[in-house]
Design a protein that fits this description.
The protein is of the alpha+beta class. Helices cover 32% and strands 27% of the residues.
Length: 206
């Protein structure tokens, strides 16, 4: 027996038809409800892919309101200091299609935004996105094509906002331990990497 799904028709047979609400929830612009959500969101995930379809998902976060809503068709995400790999930025240069998932802590529903991105160094925009006394080096401007709210079933099932469901902190994996194991950086111990991470969190957020 073949258990692999190979066609959309098979998927439709398996899942059935979406409700009228699901069909009609997508809008093509940032209305006042989407603007309010974005203004209060401190965190998003940016999804990109390159010209060959290789994908990447990158977390972006700052104080609520860090993403600028320029108008009903354009938003801008500041690019804060990171590891300088620039995976998302490289992808955008070769394939501008992006997907965004905005979250607000405590709220089960998320906001999804899809569109085309470009990289900007417009001084006025960078000044408006200043944080920690510093302008971002650039902004990711997204021309919005789709906006819609996503129901909260995934967050409710995961218990993401419920502290009682969170793992015991003593059992959590150590970022430094994982980095040390993966990078195998010569002459650098787990303790060295932990120190680097802590120093970066303290002094290089902006």
């Amino acid at each position: 027996m073949n258990y692999v799904i190979n066609s959309f028709e098979e998927l439709r047979t398996l899942f059935g038809e979406p409700s009228e609400l699901a069909k009609r929830k997508v809008i093509s612009f940032v209305d006042e409800h989407c603007r309010n959500y974005i203004d209060q969101s401190p965190f998003l995930v940016l999804s990109t892919s390159d010209e060959n379809g290789y994908t990447d998902a990158s977390p972006r976060g700052d104080a609520p309101g860090f993403v600028l809503v320029l108008d009903k068709n354009r938003i801008v995400i500041p690019d804060r200091p990171g590891n300088k790999r620039m995976d998302s930025l490289k992808n955008i240069l070769s394939n501008p299609r992006v997907g965004l998932l905005f979250l607000i802590p405590g709220m089960p529903e998320t906001l999804r935004v899809n569109g085309k991105a470009s990289l900007t160094q417009e001084p006025v925009l960078l000044e408006r996105m200043k944080a920690g006394g510093k302008n971002p080096l650039l902004g990711i401007e997204v021309e919005v094509e789709e906006c819609y709210i996503q129901c909260g079933k995934a967050l409710k099932r995961s218990g993401l906002w419920n502290p009682e469901s969170w793992a015991d902190s003593s059992t959590l994996p150590s970022g430094a331990e994982i980095l040390a194991a993966h990078s195998k950086l010569p002459g650098s111990s787990e303790a060295d990497i932990k120190k680097r991470l802590e120093e970066g969190y303290k002094n290089r957020l902006y």
